[in-house]
Amino acid sequence: MSFEGKVVAITGGGVGMGREAAILYAKQGAKVVVNSLSDSGAETVRLCKETGGEAIFVQGNVAEEALCKKIIDTAIEKYGKLDILVTCAGVVRPGSVDQLEEATIDEVLAVNVKGVFFVSKYAVQYMKEHGGGSIVHVASACCLYGVKNRSIYTASKGAIVALTRAMAMDHAAQNIRVNAICPGATVSPSMEQRFRDSGDPEGMRASFIAAHPVGRLAQPIEMAYGILYASSDEASFMTGVALPIDGGVSL
């Protein structure tokens, strides 16, 4: 896969699979606009440039529509166009339906659903007037099979799978492909914190590993390769797909 001359915008690019995807795009010749809530995106930009690539950082919360517009505007103003959008930004909050406060529900939906709508809105407005493009959303394998104590997170990611299909139908005629990946349990700082908070980190880690037929957790780079493929010219006949990359957990 080559992304020479492509311009990519990535939300949630400060850590994990978002960072790995940004670096891979840069290595393959793309110019990358990296967004993150914290300043960790600046380090991603440094790592992209270390590969010989070109990147710029836009800090902020995708729950704010103005910030989402700024991400897309920055790609166009800095690099002249936008070819690919990847939506990695997300938050995870625990709780079953009977436990959640309205503020928690609103927080998760604001980032995981509204944030994806907002940034997609401005990407599509540009792409449909400039020959098309590719959009990849990061959903989750949990919305394919369910998981305990993650009700609002699971609901938010299920919404993204539904949105992916709706967008694919709405914009296929404008040469805009829209796909999602559905990661299984992937090593990340938030995952490690979840293990620590459980009171039995090794026991919880072992249970997560046991749930995956391949017998291990995923590495962020494995999700990044899926993102790149879904956005690539090699996947030009693929749209509306929610692709599990989950070590078999959804079988």
UniProtKB/TrEMBL annotation:
The UniProt record lists the keyword Oxidoreductase: yes
Database matches in Pfam families: adh_short_C2 (PF13561)
Keyword Metal-binding: no
Keywords tagged on the record: Oxidoreductase
Family: Belongs to the short-chain dehydrogenases/reductases (SDR) family.
Protein name: SDR family oxidoreductase
